[in-house]
Design a protein that fits this description.
This protein is of the alpha/beta class. Helix content is about 30%, strand content about 30%. Strands 1, 4, 5, 6, 7, 8, 9, 10 and 11 form a 9-stranded mixed sheet that branches.
Length: about 210
């Protein structure tokens, strides 16, 4: 069974509370999303592999550690996942970035892929899938299916708010994928939004309706 890591660091929870406020504008919404993602990335990358290297300090030669090999790629789910990328790039400038576009058909209620562009060496990397909001988990599960079809086997998922139904589905569909979450919210509204959630995170992030 996958690990579910709800990151309750005070800085993350403080910023998430401001993000939830309905009068938080797009500029601040994007900034806070990036900041939360950066803080969450510390926990999600805790198990990156290291290798020894020699460095010369102003005083002497010593042994230090650096990240080993081609380690990390992030793949945001369009559109809300895009807002999480900036914070991670600031923390890990060498990270490769792919993109997945999936929407839910309103009649069939099934996820439909419309775009996928990944780094050519993505299968050699640890991949963090980014999605700001997860309700039922169908879209996120379909995105993970797509990554696995591309040969990627080391996958984590990072999101800001998720409904319990989304946790259940992802653990059932992908027990090998660990989840890093800022908040497990209480449910899903009749219109399909996570409650209390953030509303439509993508529209709030990019100033669209």
């Amino acid at each position: 069974m996958s690990r579910v890591v709800e990151i309750d660091h005070p800085l993350i929870q403080h910023k998430l509370t401001i993000l939830r406020k309905k009068d938080t504008g797009s500029k601040d919404f994007r900034r806070l999303t990036a900041e939360i993602a950066m803080l969450m990335c510390y926990e999600a990358t805790r198990d990156l592999r290291l290798q020894d290297t020699q460095v010369e300090t102003p005083l002497e030669v010593t042994t230090g550690e650096i990240i080993k090999g081609k380690e990390l790629a992030v793949v945001p789910v369009l559109r809300s996942g895009l807002g999480m990328v900036e914070g991670i790039i600031k923390l890990v400038p060498s990270v490769k970035v792919g993109h997945i576009g999936i929407y839910r058909d309103p009649e069939l209620e099934e996820p439909i892929e419309y775009y996928c562009k990944l780094p050519v060496d993505c299968a050699e990397r640890d991949v963090i899938l980014l999605d700001a909001m997860i309700g039922s988990g169908r879209t996120a599960s379909a995105a993970i299916d797509l990554l696995k079809e591309k040969g990627i086997r080391h996958i984590k998922l990072m999101c800001l708010c998720i409904a319990p139904a989304g946790v259940d589905r992802l653990q059932k569909d992908h027990p090998d994928v660990d989840l890093y979450i800022a908040s497990i919210d209480k449910g899903i509204s009749e219109s399909g939004y996570v409650r209390p959630g953030l509303g439509d995170a993508a529209d709030r992030m990019w100033g669209t309706k």
